[in-house]
Structures are given as C-alpha cells and as structure tokens.
C-alpha cells in the first residue's frame, strides 16, 4: 500500500536504518545446509473491520447529480445541538480521520457530541461511497458545491442548531475556503458560522514535485514528526482510513497558491488556522502568515494558532483532544458574533 497524497495520512515511518551494522557470521551448519527455496514470509495480519466509536453512526446523503456521499454522524444526547460541525478530511484518507481509534481522546465526533455539538464528518467527493461514481474525483470548486448540497440534505432531516462551523484538515481546508467564498447566504442553506482549518496554508514549503514520487506516491520524510506524538497502534489504526487520491484532486493541489489568491478575498466569516509544531507541508513562518491574513481581507476575524506536540495529522496524535477543544471554543466564539 502506498502512502496517501499531500494533505492526507501517511503510513508508518520506516524504522531506523541498519546501514553500517556488522554483518553476522554464518555458522558452519548453515554453510552445509542444502540449497533450496527461501521460506515464504508470513502473510500480513489482516486488519479488523473498522467500526465507529460508540455514539457515532454511518450515514449517506444525496448530493445531487446522482452522487451519494457517505460519512459519520454524532449527535448530542437528549438535547438540541448548539450548532453543527461539518468535518472535511484531507487527501488520501476518509471521514474516519475525525474518529480516531488508537485512543478514545482522539475522536472529534465523540468529544463534540459530549459538548452539545452535532458533528457530520463527510467522505469528500471521490472518497467512500462516491468513489465508484467519481473515480477521477472532482476539482475543489465542484467538491464545494457537492458538499454544500449534501449539507443542505442533512439540514432537511436534522436540526443543525445555530448554524454550521466547517472544521477541515489539509486538502479539506481548500474545499472549506471555497465553500465560504461561494456562500451567498441562501436561506435554504444552514448559516455558515466560520471555518476552522488545520494543516492548510497558502504556499507549500516545497514544490509538489519534491513531495510526490512514482505513480503518485509521496515521499513522507519527516511528515509525522517524532513517534512520541502518537498513541500506540496509531499507524496500524490509520491504515484502515487510507484511501486512493483521485487524480483531479492532485491536479488541483498544484494550482492551490493561485486559487487561494483568487478566492480568499470573498471569505466573509471568521477563520481560524492551526499549524502543527512539526508541520512539514506548508510555509507557516511570519511572512507566510502575514500573506495568509492579508489574503482574507474580508473576513471579520483571522486567527492563527500553533499546536505544540503535533505533526501535520493533528487529529491522530496525543494533541488531538487539545486541538479539538480549541476548535470547539472557536465555534463558541462564532456563536456569540
């Protein structure tokens, strides 16, 4: 299995190199052993079927043009939701990114529901159930329109509370920003409260050609940061949420710096960005953050946080709960606007 594309989940880092280690001496008995076929390696242990956390259920939503999106839904118990969090994953993963299984504290869905929020985490167009119909995926603009249609269908069936906060990771952040830029306040849509975006900026730290390898694979050197940032079994659990990246998504990733410049000025809701301490995909130094804020000139508020003790995939590490709590605090702030 190859790693996912920029903005998604990578497989476990390789173990340290053994280059330079002394070569063990072959015992005499081994020298006299008859030649024969090498023993076959043991087959890989299959991963158990993925199941959502308690209180989280799988859903499907019609999104127009014969497209059905799959996803996960968590609702607060016995009360009207304060608002709804629409969660959009990065490239190469799925809605399960927001329901981490390596440790209960990593799940956004269970935490937010406990705090009175509904959470709808969607498999973006080209992922999950829609992958068969959209094997090439969709460009960012069409993804934004399709997700909006699915959200409208969800709102027709469920109380969304005071509105919707879009919480998006990496490539999902591009879709979220496009949704906000295209928002016209249609009364048939839930009120857009704001955007909480992690692992997405306006300029890549390196050319994408340096990040992508043969056949669309990715060179993930240093992408996760230190292994101590993650609960045990994170990489095994994460393998169950890895998905192929649709080709159109890869092409749009290369165009993002120009696309951001064109759409950012139309975003008119509060935006919060979070960059991990060990973020390796995006420029997030002072000049880059100044450009990011300047581009969002119509947004009433643009804040930028750094998440200590985290790599790019913040919602899978020990820092997930702290990040999710800050995101929900931002949602509280948006409700008071």
TrEMBL record:
Residues 12-35 have a biased composition (Low complexity). Residues 85-314 form the AB hydrolase-1 domain. One of its GO terms (biological process) is acylglycerol catabolic process. It comes from the Bacteria. Residues 36-52 have a biased composition (Pro residues). GO terms for molecular function: monoacylglycerol lipase activity. One of its GO terms (cellular component) is membrane. The keyword Hydrolase applies. Residues 1-56 are annotated as: Disordered. Keywords: Hydrolase. InterPro entries: AB_hydrolase_1, AB_hydrolase_fold, AB_hydrolase_sf. PANTHER family: MONOACYLGLYCEROL LIPASE (PTHR43798), MONOACYLGLYCEROL LIPASE ABHD6 (PTHR43798:SF5). This is Alpha/beta fold hydrolase. It comes from Streptomyces spectabilis.
């Amino acid at each position: 299995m190859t790693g996912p594309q920029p903005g998604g989940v990578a497989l476990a880092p390789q173990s340290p190199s053994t280059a330079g280690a002394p070569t063990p001496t072959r015992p005499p008995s081994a020298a006299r052993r008859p030649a024969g076929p090498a023993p076959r390696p043991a087959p890989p242990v299959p991963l158990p079927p993925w199941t959502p956390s308690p209180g989280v259920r799988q859903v499907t939503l019609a999104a127009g043009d014969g497209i059905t999106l799959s996803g996960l839904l968590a609702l607060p118990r016995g009360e009207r939701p304060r608002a709804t969090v629409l969660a959009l994953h990065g490239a190469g993963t799925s809605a399960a990114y927001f329901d981490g299984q390596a440790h209960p504290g990593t799940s956004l869905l269970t935490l937010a529901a406990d705090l009175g929020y509904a959470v709808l985490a969607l498999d973006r167009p080209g992922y999950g159930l829609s992958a068969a119909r959209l094997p090439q995926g969709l460009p960012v603009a069409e993804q934004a329109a399709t997700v909006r249609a699915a959200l409208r269908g969800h709102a027709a069936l469920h109380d969304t509370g005071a509105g919707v906060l879009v919480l998006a990771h990496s490539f999902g952040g591009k879709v979220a920003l496009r949704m906000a830029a295209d928002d016209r306040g249609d009364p048939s849509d839930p009120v857009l409260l704001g955007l909480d975006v992690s692992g997405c900026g306006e300029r890549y730290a390196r050319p994408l050609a340096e990040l992508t390898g043969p056949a669309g694979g990715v060179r993930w050197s240093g992408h996760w940061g230190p292994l101590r940032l993650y609960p045990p079994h994170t990489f095994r659990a994460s393998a169950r949420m890895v998905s192929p990246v649709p080709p159109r998504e890869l092409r749009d990733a290369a165009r993002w710096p120009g696309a951001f410049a064109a759409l950012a000025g139309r975003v008119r809701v509060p935006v919060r960005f979070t960059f991990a301490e060990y973020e390796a995909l995006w420029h997030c130094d002072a000049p880059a953050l100044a450009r990011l804020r300047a581009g969002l000139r119509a947004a009433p508020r643009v804040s930028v946080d750094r998440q200590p003790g985290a790599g790019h995939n913040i919602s899978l590490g020990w820092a997930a709960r702290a990040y999710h709590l800050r995101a929900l605090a931002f949602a509280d702030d948006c409700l008071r606007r």
